[in-house]
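Intended use. Records like the one below are meant for learning the mapping from a protein sequence to its folded structure. Do not use them to infer anything beyond what is encoded.
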Amino acid sequence: MAIADGLTTGCADLQASGGIQTVFIRKWNSTGSPDQIVVSSVNKITSIADSGGSTSTWGVYETKLQTPALSVSGTSVGNANTYECSLTFNLPQLDLQRRTALADLEGECLQVMMLDTNSNYWVIGISDTLTGGDGGLDLPVASHIGTRPQTFARLGSVEGVTGAAFSDENGMTITLTCTQYEFPRIYEPTGAAVSINAAGKVATVS
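Structure written out for the chain above:
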């Protein structure tokens, strides 16, 4: 692909803020059938749906303000561009509810989406380059023949603390990791936007 033009830097770019507002997580093929993923040629994901449907269901994780962060470290060797992605976020207070939520992530192949403070939905665990589907090599994510690609996200580490003093923090810090062969894509739906239910725990994504 030719480099048609470059980039300008405007006032809004210089004032872009850091931080992640909300974390969304779901399992690959959570209904037991292949997910339907639509990617575009302009580095976007335009649809994430359950098999045979038009939407997918995600868990919504509300975190402590100014603690979530996505970091992406890329290297280029030969024809391979490798991106190590890491999302770290904090769940305040150690309790049974959070312990159960942690167990739901253990050993699972995950899709992770983050809404940043600039209204971008970043996605890790869904990519379209060298995905290495279980049934074949380098299959596009939209046709991964019923198996999740090997570029899924996973639980990387957990740190739980009770604190000692009354003023100490109490909670757990979760890190989700992913190795991809393209920089994370942005989710921009062609249909309805992301909808979070009244309880704030479940999101519907088209």
